[in-house]
Amino acid sequence: IKRLIYIDTDVLILGDLLELQTLDMQGHSCAAVPYCLQRMEDYINFDVLASLGFREVYDRKACIVNRGLLVIDVAKWNAKGMTEDIEAWMGRYASSEKDLWVGGMSQPPWLLAMNGDFLPLKEEWNCNSLGRESMSMWESIVLRRSGFDHLALRQLDVKFSAYGSVSPHIVTCSSEAKMLHYNGDMKPWVADRLRRTAPRCALPEVMPQHAWKWSRTVRVFCDDVTFVQCQELWSVFISPRAVLALRDIDAEWAEEERRWKEQIQEEKSAALK
Predict the structure, then answer these.
(1) Which of 10, 45, 80, 266 has a CA positioned 20 to 30 A from the CA of residue 148?
(2) Strand runs (DSSP E) across 111-246, as ranges?
(3) Bridge pairing between strands 30-39 and 63-73
(4) CA-wise closest residue to 124 among 180, 184, 188, 63
(5) HSE of 241, CA atoms in CB hemisphere, 13 A
(6) Are the C-beta atoms of 40 and 102 separated by less than 8 Å?
(7) Which residue in 159, 103, 151 sits closest to 134, CA to CA?
(8) pLDDT by residue (tens digit) across 124-147?
(9) Which of these, 257, 185, 253, 199, lies nearest to 231 by C-alpha position?
(10) pLDDT at res. 266
(11) Three-class SS state of 35
């Protein structure tokens, strides 16, 4: 095997994977999509890193790379000892008195092992955050600078927090995406059970005709852009049988019981008033 293409399970492929199979890797062991609205310092504890002897090795301001899609040149990967480096970082994490990183166990050790040595792919190959509930302050600033005025945000049901973050998450890269990535807690197969406003996605150009449950067309600069609920994009391509297979019946019953208890408490409170 000369090449591997790793893809997370919470993704929707809209492009042709042959592009990645025949991609010129330019001597790199892997290729992935950088995400510059998050930095290494958002994941890695650089004080702990320095205590381990890696003070000047890493750039805390470097963009992170989302490994929801990863193209691997097997020969280069093995020659650089990437697997061994990842395992070594996991060992350092396990033996450290303080957490070396946050944000899960899979991405940070790979970021440290890779240390910027990758072929950057275009954002279209990992349009991410379709499962996130909100946007950080910095992400919301970029959103507003990209042409979303207050009217457009109101039309998308956006709410602002006191600290500058906004919800729901607004995904714009989906319009031209070749892969949609539902990273975050609001996976499309559980989103209906969550009492939260679903992330909004710019309608992909390649989507077939569909009667959307929710849609809004807003003006962004001089263009009209149609948004739908991100989870609905997933539902267009999944069969009813697969939907049933993904359901967690026990969790659904627990959620229904919780809602029932809340409703009783609300009715009691209303009666006392």
Answers:
(1) 10
(2) 119-120, 159-160, 166-167, 170-171, 179-181, 200-202, 215-220, 223-229
(3) antiparallel
(4) 180
(5) 0
(6) no
(7) 159
(8) 999 999 999 999 999 999 999 999
(9) 199
(10) 80
(11) strand
Beta strand pairing call for 63-73 and 166-167: unpaired
Compute the average pLDDT of residues 104-131: 94
Query: Could you tell me the two tokens for 231?
Result: 């989870």
Identify any residues that bridge with 11 across adjacent strands, giving them in sequence order. 181
CA distance 25 to 118: 9
Three-state SS at 78: helix
* Token digits of residue 74: 């097997």
Report whether pLDDT(247) > 90.
no
Residue in 130, 170, 174 with CA at minimum distance from that of residue 149 = 170
Dist CA 41 CA 172 (whole Å): 25
3-class SS of residue 148: coil
How many Å apart are CA 25 and CA 65, to the nearest integer?
16
Query: 79: which 2 tokens?
Result: 């020659």
The two tokens of residue 128 are 């991410």
The Cα–Cα gap between 164 and 135 comes to 9
Closest CA to 15 of 200, 204, 160: 204
Phi, psi at 167, each rounded to 5° = -140, 145
